[in-house]
C-alpha cells in the first residue's frame, strides 16, 4: 500500500505497480503540478495514432498504470486535484506543445478498482481505462468547471468488463463517454469497448452530453447496459456520435430507468460528428449503428426530445423506444428530428417522428429480442 496521509501533496506524473493499493486518507489532497516539465511526454495511443488535442505525442497522465494487474486507487474520500486550469488555457489559446494529460490512466491493465475518492479539475479526461479488462469505478465524485474545455469524467476506451456505479459526475464536456479508437488507427487496433454496466449515477455536463458514445468508436462499442441514472442541467442527455470514416459499430445498447431534468437535447444520434486524425482515413469506412433500446425514461423541462440523423449509406437501424415521457419546455421549435434512421416505438410522448414508428422489417421483433437479452444481461 502507498498511504497518503492528510495534507496537500504536490507531484508530477507518477507510475503505479501491480498488486498495489494507493490509499488517500480523509483530508489528503494530491495536487497535479502546473509545470509541464513535471509531466513526461509519451507516444500517442496506437488506436489513436496521434494526440487528441494536437498532432504528435502527448503528456503522460498524473497517475499511470501500464500493463498492471490488481491495482486499487481508493481512500476515505481523499481528493486528487489535477489543477487543470493552466492546461485549459493552453488548449483554448492553441499554445499546447503536446496533447493534454489525463488525471488517471490505466493502459493494458486488468482488475482495476477506483473508489471512494473525489477527483477535481482534470486537464482532459479524469479516469481513462484504455485496453483494460475488469475495471470497477465505484462511489467517486468527479467534477470540473462548466467552462473547462473538453473535460470528461470517466472514459472506458477499448476496454471490456467495466462497471461504473454510485458516482456523481459534473464536467465541462461529457460526464461519461465510451470510446474505442480513432478512424484507421482504431480499425487497425481492433479492440472494442464491450460488456459495460453503468448504474446509479448522477451525471451533469455543460457543453457535451451526460452520457456519450463516441465519436471515436472505430474499434466498436457493444453490449452496454445502463440503468437507474439521473441526468440533469445538461446540454445533452444521451448521445451517440459517429461520422463517415470511423468504421466500427455501436450496437446492443440498453438504457433504462432514466430520470432527466433541464436538458436541452434528451436523445441524440448523429452520423456527422467528429474530426479525423489525418487525411489517411478511409471515407468509405461506414460505421454501423444497430439495436439501441431506450426505455422507461421520464424527463422534465426538455427542449428537444430527440435528434436522430443517420448516414444515408449506412442508416441507423433498430432504434427501440419504450415507455418514454417528456415534458417539453414552452417555445421549443420541434420535439423530434429524424433522417436515415429506422426504429420502433411504443408509449412515447411526445410522439416521435414516423421514422421511429416504422414497419421496417423485423424492427419490433428485433426490439423485443433485445429486451429478452436485457433480462439475461441483468442477471449476469
Automatic annotation (TrEMBL):
> What domain of life is recorded for the organism?
Eukaryota
Gene Ontology biological process:
carbohydrate metabolic process
Q: Which residues cross the membrane?
A: none
InterPro entries this protein is in?
GH28_Enzymes, Glyco_hydro_28
- What's a Gene Ontology MF term here? polygalacturonase activity
* Keywords on record: Glycosidase, Hydrolase
Q: What is this protein called?
A: Polygalacturonase
Origin organism is Carya illinoinensis
Amino acid at each position: 500500500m502507498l498511504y497518503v496521509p492528510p495534507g496537500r501533496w504536490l507531484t508530477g506524473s507518477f507510475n503505479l505497480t501491480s498488486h498495489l493499493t494507493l490509499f488517500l486518507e480523509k483530508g489528503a489532497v494530491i495536487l497535479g503540478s502546473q509545470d509541464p516539465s513535471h509531466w513526461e511526454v509519451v507516444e500517442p495511443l496506437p488506436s489513436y495514432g496521434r494526440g487528441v488535442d494536437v498532432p504528435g505525442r502527448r503528456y503522460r497522465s498524473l497517475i499511470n498504470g501500464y500493463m498492471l494487474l490488481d491495482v486499487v486507487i481508493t481512500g476515505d474520500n481523499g481528493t486528487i486535484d489535477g489543477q487543470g486550469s493552466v492546461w485549459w488555457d493552453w488548449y483554448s489559446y492553441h499554445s499546447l506543445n503536446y496533447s493534454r494529460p489525463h488525471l488517471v490512466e490505466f493502459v493494458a491493465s486488468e482488475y482495476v478498482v477506483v473508489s471512494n475518492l473525489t477527483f477535481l479539475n482534470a486537464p482532459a479526461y479524469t479516469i481513462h481505462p484504455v485496453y483494460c479488462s475488469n475495471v470497477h469505478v465505484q462511489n467517486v465524485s468527479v467534477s470540473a468547471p462548466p467552462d473547462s474545455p473538453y473535460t470528461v469524467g470517466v472514459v472506458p476506451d477499448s476496454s471490456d468488463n467495466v462497471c461504473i456505479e454510485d458516482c456523481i459526475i459534473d464536467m465541462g464536456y461529457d460526464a461519461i463517454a465510451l470510446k474505442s479508437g480513432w478512424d484507421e488507427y482504431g480499425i487497425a487496433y481492433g479492440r472494442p469497448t464491450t460488456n459495460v454496466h453503468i448504474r446509479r449515477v448522477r451525471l451533469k455536463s455543460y457543453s457535451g452530453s451526460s452520457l456519450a458514445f463516441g465519436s471515436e468508436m472505430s474499434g466498436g462499442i457493444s453490449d452496454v447496459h445502463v440503468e437507474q441514472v439521473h441526468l440533469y442541467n445538461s446540454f445533452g442527455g444521451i448521445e451517440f456520435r459517429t461520422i463517415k470514416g470511423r468504421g466500427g459499430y455501436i450496437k446492443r445498447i440498453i438504457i433504462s430507468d432514466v430520470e432527466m431534468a433541464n436538458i436541452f437535447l434528451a436523445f441524440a444520434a448523429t452520423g456527422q460528428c467528429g474530426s479525423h486524425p489525418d487525411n489517411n482515413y478511409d471515407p468509405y469506412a461506414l460505421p454501423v449503428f444497430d439495436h439501441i433500446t431506450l426505455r422507461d425514461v421520464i424527463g422534465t423541462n426538455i427542449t428537444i426530445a430527440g435528434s436522430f440523423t443517420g448516414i444515408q449509406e449506412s442508416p441507423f437501424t433498430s432504434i427501440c423506444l419504450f415507455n418514454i415521457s417528456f415534458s417539453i419546455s414552452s417555445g421549443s421549435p420541434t420535439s423530434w428530428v429524424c433522417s436515415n434512421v429506422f426504429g420502433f416505438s411504443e408509449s412515447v410522448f411526445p410522439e416521435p417522428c414516423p421514422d421511429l414508428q416504422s414497419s421496417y422489417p423485423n424492427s419490433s421483433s428485433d426490439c423485443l429480442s433485445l429486451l429478452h437479452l436485457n433480462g439475461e444481461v441483468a442477471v449476469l
